[in-house]
Amino acid sequence: MLSAHATTAPSLAARLKDTDGRPAGFDYLRLILSVGVIATHSSLIAYGYDQTTTWTSSVVGWVSSLIVPMFFSLSGFLVAGSLERTDSLFKFLGLRVFRIMPALSVEVLVSALLLGPIFTSLSLSDYFRDPLFHHYFLNVVGHIQYLLPHVFDKNPLPLVNGQLWTVPYELACYILLWFLAIFGIYRNKHWLLIFIVAFYLFQVGNTIFRPNLNYRGAGGVTTVMMFSAGLLLYRYRERIVWSGWLALLCAAVSLASILIPNGIRFSALPAAYFTVYLGLLNPPRQRILLSGDYSYGLYLYGFPIQQAVVAALPNLREWYWNILISLPIAAAIAVFSWWTIERPILRSRQTLDRLDSWFNARLRRKPIEEPLS
Q: What pTM, to 2 d.p., does this model score?
């Protein structure tokens, strides 16, 4: 680790303090990455797997391979802070469920009960009787189902919600952090460092026995590793410098790793540092853009909206039209989702307080307010 005492650059912790713990960079970064997800999906949705080679092999496709790793790194850093501010592991996990499940449930219901009946090529009676329709609701509990019966079957890519592949891994990350906290690994940052080293060694074995020479995006295990790297940076925030030069070096290493077969599996720490550096920037807040956390809604609703645009407007089936038409619709729904679903649920924390009291009274669990080493 780089010590903050060895340089005049501030530490990550000092930078957090300078921005009152709420740097605008993380808010902007979430929005940018969410829009980036919609942009990168546009080619896949408009042309299908077989015709996206030009996009994926371009500079844009190369750089966009870091979007998901950056999302998970950002999540690890911020969720670690949330864990340390929360006085109960039960309450911490409950807050994570509050953040993910309500909007996810609404997205699943809207896709199955509104988009599905509109865009299926079956009769409505056959659509609602089909087992695929019933299985689709398993998405609510993180068991991802990508298809609805004959929905978008004329589109180049007949998936309803391909973006949801990350949800099980996001849930796995939260559960992993919960267990790291329970067994004291998170509290002792040196044990956490050993955990990350062991994760890297696991990736060596993963690469030897499960090589993937053609795929340069981040798979499931890699996303969990990116999340873990964000945790590590937060725990060592007092000793790691906030340096633009180091961030550029980490960005270069991360991008170079994508060009190496399986290389992205080992880019967790540099990608996480670059992400955290950007997040700790503090540009002026644009009041409309940052009036709520619209990034999750953009991510959730973007893909099915993009599919609907392709199905409804086949004459405008180009990636740029897909972005131009889908993005404003997704943004409007994300704003609606935040103010009517996500924010009200997050503000009902007294429910978690009552549940936590009940849980502690019966299991005599201790809060996590223990010294961090």
A: 0.89
User: Looking at the DSSP assignment, which residues form a beta bridge with residue 151?
Assistant: 120
Q: Could you write out the DSSP letters of every residue in 33-45?
A: HHHHHHHHHHHHH
CB 41 within 8 A of CB 303: yes
As a whole number of angstroms, the distance between CA 297 and CA 103 comes to 7
Compute the 3-state secondary structure of the chain and give helix, strand, coil in percent, each to the nearest 5.
70, 0, 25
Q: What letter would DSSP give residue 338?
A: I
Phi (first) and psi of residue 288, to 5 degrees: -70, -50
Of 47-51, 64-68, 75-79, where does the model show the most confidence? 75-79
C-alpha torsion 94→97→99→101, nearest 10: -150
Contacts of residue 167, Cβ cutoff 8 Å, sequence gap at least 6: 100, 104, 139, 142, 144
Predicted local confidence at residue 123, as pLDDT: 96
- In the predicted model, is pLDDT for residue 282 greater than 90? yes
Q: Give the chain's length.
A: 373
Q: Cα–Cα distance between 91 and 174 in angstroms, integer?
A: 12
The overall average pLDDT reported for the chain is 88
Distance CA 356, CA 373 (A): 26
CB 1 within 8 A of CB 233: no
Q: Closest by alpha carbon to 41, among 61, 16, 19, 12? A: 61
Contact 299, 37 (CB under 8 A): yes
Q: Distance from CA of residue 185 to its chain's centroid? A: 23
Separation of alpha carbons 119 and 304, rounded Å? 11
Tell me how far apart the alpha carbons of residues 221 and 226 are, in angstroms, rounded to a whole number.
Answer: 9
Distance of CA 339 to the CA centre of its chain: 20
318, two tokens: 């180009």
Reported as a single tens digit per residue, the pLDDT across 111-143 is: 999 999 999 999 999 999 999 999 999 999 889
pLDDT at 331: 96
DSSP lists the bridge partners of residue 241 as: 11
- Residue 265 tokens, joined: 């599996």
